[in-house]
Amino acid sequence: MEKAKKEFAERKKEVYRREDKVLRYGDGKNTVQVKLKTTIPFTKRIEMIGEIVGMVFTGKGDTVESYAPGFTEFAKRYATIAYYTDVKLPSDLDKTWELLNNTAIYKDVVRIVGGELRSIFKEADEAIRTRRDYLVN
Asked: What mean pLDDT is predicted for residues 70-83?
């Protein structure tokens, strides 16, 4: 029991110690700064999971018009940048895809945030499976 209390106290200190970071890309006058949240509140996590699921299932309200499992990776990357950084993503999907896949920003965010993102992705995958199974049955 004492070990568990100690581990909890250490984890609590780690969570409260997490501070936002600034990522820099380029050099000189071409430097771009990106503000990175190293953690997000629980309510934002829930919103992010909902956004990922919502991108995979399209439709209005409770009506699902299509299920696009191939969109899952894009949805995760998009939501990661949208929720953890101050980057304004382009509305053009092709340009957004290029930004998410051909720059270091997504990998940097995943590397820095780590386990919190893995947990969110796991929860999103489970929500997608649950919704898909519900629609099939």
From this structure: 96
Distance (Å, whole) CA 107 – CA 36 = 12
Burial class (CB in 10 A: 0-12, 13-18, 19+), 89: middle
Q: How far apart are CA 121 and CA 113, in angstroms?
A: 12
Which of 18, 14, 22, 15 has its CA nearest to residue 38?
Answer: 18
Is the pTM higher than 0.70?
yes
DSSP letters spanning 12-58 = HHHHHH---EEEEES-GGG-EEEEE-S---HHHHHHHHHHHHHHHEE
pLDDT value at position 7? Answer: 75
* Vertex 129: Cα angle to 126 and 133 (nearest 5): 140
How big is the chain, counted in residues?
137
For 115, counting Cβ atoms within 10 Å of its Cβ (0-12 exposed, 13-18 middle, 19+ buried), the class is exposed
